[in-house]
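Please fill in the sequence for the structure shown.

STRUCTURE ENCODING:
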């Protein structure tokens, strides 16, 4: 679940040689490169759980983009039961916060705020524009709506009681579903010890990483707001150029030539 130290865990797994590790960052980064793995995740979300068709889409998402050896955070964490079936020897690390209240305080000002922009334009209009009007952003939004579902929102707005219940239910579901010998319930404040013991690897001679605190996440949100507005500026620029081209052609009395693609 996001805002439980998943970025710190991503960095830790990669330092241990168990990466590359998929994270929501890869979804955002793919906005500028290749969204095919995001489309595959969205397609997996529409297919029956624990089906070969869903496994095929998840394999594509894991192998075609970079070749991931581990995953943490949304969206692939939502498929943990499928991934356990696909990789019977894989281990599961359940990252947790001190309480649902602590998790909510962090999530409601960061990731849930971003996801709320799927539905309403305030207070992140740039995200709303990106998710609803950009052809590339809409593909990410489609995946988010499909995989995440309505479990944190009522009428498009964050719902504190519902969100906390979803967070707690997720933890209970993982504990009930994963065999004890394959599960580590982990608070990143515990550091390397429990994680390395669980994974059967040596403790590195570096401090346990701390990634993506709330302030860093807010900077990322501000950056994506700018990207959303740049999409609008680009669309307006293209529309103005096309309009001027058409008007110039009409004023000259020449037909506007549209060359058919070969």
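FILLED IN BY: designer on duty
SEQUENCE:
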């Amino acid at each position: 679940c996001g805002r439980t130290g998943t970025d710190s865990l991503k960095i830790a797994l990669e330092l241990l040689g168990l990466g590359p590790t998929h994270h929501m960052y890869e979804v955002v980064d793919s906005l500028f490169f290749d969204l095919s793995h995001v489309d595959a995740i969205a397609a997996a979300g529409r297919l029956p759980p624990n089906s070969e068709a869903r496994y095929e889409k998840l394999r594509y998402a894991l192998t075609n983009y970079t070749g991931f050896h581990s995953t943490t955070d949304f969206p692939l964490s939502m498929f943990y039961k499928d991934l356990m079936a696909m990789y019977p020897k894989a281990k599961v690390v359940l990252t947790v916060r001190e309480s649902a209240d602590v998790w909510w305080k962090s999530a409601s000002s960061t990731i849930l705020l971003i996801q709320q922009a799927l539905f309403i334009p305030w207070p992140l209009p740039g995200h709303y524009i990106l998710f609803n009007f950009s052809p590339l952003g809409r593909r990410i939004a489609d995946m988010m709506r499909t995989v995440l579902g309505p479990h944190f929102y009522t009428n498009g707005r964050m719902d504190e009681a519902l969100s906390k219940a979803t967070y707690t239910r997720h933890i209970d579901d993982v504990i009930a579903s994963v065999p004890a010998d394959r599960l580590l319930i982990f608070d990143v404040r515990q550091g390397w010890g429990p994680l390395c013991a669980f994974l059967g690897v040596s403790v590195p001679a570096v401090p346990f990483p701390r990634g993506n605190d709330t302030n860093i996440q807010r900077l990322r949100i501000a950056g994506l707001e700018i990207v959303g507005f740049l999409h609008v500026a680009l669309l307006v620029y293209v529309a103005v150029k096309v309009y001027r081209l058409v008007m110039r052609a009409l004023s000259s009395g020449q037909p506007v030539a549209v060359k058919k693609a070969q």
